[in-house]
Records
---
Amino acid sequence: EEISYNTKTFDIYYEIKNDHKNQVLGDGEASSIAIAIKNKGVVAYNNPNAIKDYLEKYDLRCITSEDIFNELFKKGIISKKELKDFLEK
């Protein structure tokens, strides 16, 4: 999804990118957070602590790769071995 200038999504993106506490997030991460906020969606990010302030401020849910793989295992989409192989990486 494209973020257009002069939109609320752009304003959020700009806020994140110019937050002096933000020393971790690149353009892609900031964009995905802004789009998740706009769409009332979920952020997929493997370091939720790095974006904790944004998760709390915008009441966002964050899932990690591990969360996704665990859910795939619970639903029988991947095997226990595949899950174990992933988690050992």
Note: DSSP finds five helices and two strands in the chain.
---
Amino acid sequence: MAENLQSVGCKQQYSSQTKLVALRVREYLRSLHPLLNEGELDNELAVATGISVRSLQRFKREAKDNCVSSPPSKRQKTSPVLNSIDKFDEECIRRVIASFYDRGEIPTVESILEKIKEAPINFKGQRTSLYRWMKKMGFRFKKTDRGRHLIMERQDIVLARCKYLRRIKENRESCNPRPEIYIDETWVNQNECVDKCWTNCDGKLGPKVKSGRGARFIIVHAGGVDGFVPGGLHMFRSTSPSILFFTPPRSPNYKH
């Protein structure tokens, strides 16, 4: 059996931790069987650990020379194609993928590869290289939320956001900046009640909750760094039948 272990184990490489554990097991076997000679002890250790006798003898020589070490780690091969991709190429690849969705198409690795082989990227790799790089960029092939994020990148919304940020920047950098006022809204149901409260073991003790949500009331207010705007509070009853949220306040609600 030891001969079989030796023929198999000679092709393996062992870490320094494995070598030290094997040597400690050897010392333990020596304490149990003090009458065994070195060869018999090595054979017993080979049977117990599954490591060849030749490897165990090499462990002893390394320990004697105080040079027990792990084999050098293998260097991963790097792809010259992937190493040539920079941040500009990554951004171009993202835009290519987004352009498919803008046109109402579903991108595949093959269709993306066909596009990025053209200028300005001129990708030199093949399907596997592109697949690996897309995963490195954070792309995953999985279920989406039906394009809800993509709608935020419509051109008119992007334009409105840029216009808003530009006006905010101009106001803050002006000699006499105007105060920035932000508006937000929330809602509360007429029969709103807490989800948890102190009760007894059977849970029958608690507030008297009416059936149904009741009317929904919208609360709108405006404020800034100095607090709420005096007289800015506006509350009204919603007429929306939706149970998820409410109809956005219309312009008459801001002219009260």
Note: Residues 80-136 form one domain.
---
Amino acid sequence: MAQDNRSFESTLHDIVYSIDTGTGLKIIRVTLFILFLLIIVMLYTATQFRGLTSEEAMDYAQLGRNISLDGGLATKCIRPVSMWKVSERNLDENPQIAGHPDLFHPPAYPLLLSAGFKIFELVGIDPFSLPEGGRATSLPAEQWVILPLNH
């Protein structure tokens, strides 16, 4: 019986020693450092983000929104080259403007954004609504879906 008790104490001592000076200490330090970095990034983002500023970011965001709402990779930013390509496929002389397919961007990132927007919709939050009574600098979709995916 004494040998089992000593074995447990020895094992417990080894665990405490590992946490105090060995591998456990390294794991704790790395975890705390990563947590500290995440907090700094979140604080910086919360205080300094003023909305999407580049055209490309806005284009990807509207593609993700269109996928989450309509289910298709349609764009409202119509380019002359895509009009030409669509008019080649259509027999009509007028190219399709409403629900114009996006031929410029790869679909993976807009699909990822769309999945984030859908999660908000499942929870019951409209990610595209503006706050009442004032002008917003950013939408909830930008702050809680696009920014975390880009950090």
Note: The longest strand covers residues 74-75.
---
Amino acid sequence: MDLSVLKQISQIQVQIIRYEEPIILVLGNFGNVGNILIFGRRDLRKNVCSWYFICLSLSHLILLDLVCLSRIIITSTGDNVFQYISSLCKFRAYGFELSFNLARYFLCLVSIDRWMITSSSARLRQQSSIRLSQWLIITGVIFWAIFSMHAPIGYQPTALDCTAPLGSNYAFFVSIESIVISMGTMVIISVFSVLTVFNLHSRVNRQIHPTATNISIHIETQQTIMPNAQTAQQLFKRNMQLHSSYLHWSRKHSEKSVS
């Protein structure tokens, strides 16, 4: 490909980043801060899922500000400091790796929690608690903070950008890691979303269609009520007959007394 064409493509990319990234940065920060304010309300903090959404929004804030802001600075100044300042390169690589993994982790927790809370098992629903969510958040942050330490070790400033050295074993590891974590996140979210829909569908069916036990109880109740109703009807007829006999006797007695 001609160098002039490559140069034009590069200029188009720079222009897109220059005008697109600020909009993404502003809208992304506004949306995530709004999520934190909404889910951080006192009445919503009792919900386990609210804590996961707050942590998810914080992860997205870090991810947006690291990636978008760095691109805006590079395109505005024309100087990519991440190509020759190793500390900035490693800091951005670690922040990107950590925030990206945490975002996917909290998305998985949201899907699993929705499945648990819609389950028909009371024991499983009880597992969705604030205490468990706090434990999962703390342990998850610690785990991914330690796991992401490979980024500042492996990423190096190069002539292109701050990336893993091309053709190295670490570059191969980063590719495999990205594929495995992305596919695993997608599978977990898909599976538990389907299970959640199944739980909701089963709950609706149980509310609409009576179970066999309820039907048998209803039949037994009707069988018990029917004889009682027949007995009451017979007693009512007998009382009416006695009442009419009494009226007939009293009428005759009054006629005799008058005569």
Note: The chain has a mean pLDDT of 79.
